[in-house]
Amino acid sequence: MEFDEWEPVYEPILAEFGYERAGDERARDTLASLTDDFDLAHLSSARDATVAVAGAGPSLERERALERARAADVVFAASTAADTLAERGVDVDCMVTDLDKNPETVRRLTERGVPVAVHAHGDNVPALRAVVPDCAGEYVLPTTQAAPRGPVRNVGGFTDGDRAAFLADHLGAARLVFVGWDFDDPTVDSTKARKLAWAERLLYWLESRRGDRFELLDGRRETIETRALPLEAGE
């Protein structure tokens, strides 16, 4: 994902949620000051692999979802999905987080040599300063939704979950399977529901970029809002 491809999608996200690009850039620069270049060889197992992208939805606790995660070659977990999977004996190969919940899991995983993609955005600078210095720096992959700078990469994606899918794609995953995704979760607030709608749109874009069809979008594609997506004609 080059930033000039991502930027036309990033701008309507900023507009819808009232985020300021300058805030994302300040957070990115803070994260850059706390991290070094991440060696993607730590995630080489994702290349040509089946990667399970685990969301933190309630369906992740169902046995079918856990079985699908165990059957995958590699598991990327969004936020607290890493804890849910660990409690049920499923190891994760990468955690993707903006540090809004479980900082101890972030620290623990990096200390065990498990990469964590830590995301910087406009309102998590205090969390970045509090958590990142206590991590094993070699295993922190710094990410941004603004333009990349220094060690901080932009692989695409907005929420932790869809960013995990974009990261797996960036690393050359052959197949993506999705577990623990609940787009219609009635327990979330309106802001989270809008973020899930964006995650759905971005996964639609990602499958189009890959020439793929993600099972979790079956029966939903016809109702996805695509106007903000740089799709090829006819998609």
Describe the overall structure:
Helix 5 links the parallel strand 3 (about 95) and strand 4. Helix 7 (about 160-170) packs parallel to helix 8. The two termini are about 20 Å apart. The model has no long low-confidence stretch (mean pLDDT about 95). This protein is an alpha/beta fold and about 240 residues long. It is globular and about 45 Å long. It contains 8 helices and 6 strands.
The CA-CA distance between the termini, in Å, is: 19 Å
Low-confidence stretches: none
Compute the average pLDDT: 96
Rg to the nearest angstrom?
16 Å
Order of helices and strands: HHEHEHEHEHEHEH
Biggest β-sheet strands, sense, barrel: 6 strands, parallel
- Strand elements, count: 6
How would you describe the shape?
Answer: globular
SS class: alpha/beta
Task: Note the beta-strand portion.
Answer: 5-15%
The DSSP helix count reads: 8
Share of helical residues: 25-40%
Strand arrangement, largest sheet?
A: 5-4-3-2-1-6
Quick recap:
The chain has 235 residues and is of the alpha/beta class.
List the helices and strands and how they pair.
Elements: H1 3-17, H2 21-34, E1 50-54, H3 63-71, E2 74-78, H4 81-87, E3 94-97, H5 103-111, E4 116-120, H6 125-131, E5 140-144, H7 160-170, E6 175-179, H8 190-210
Parallel strand pairs: 1-2, 1-6, 2-3, 3-4, 4-5
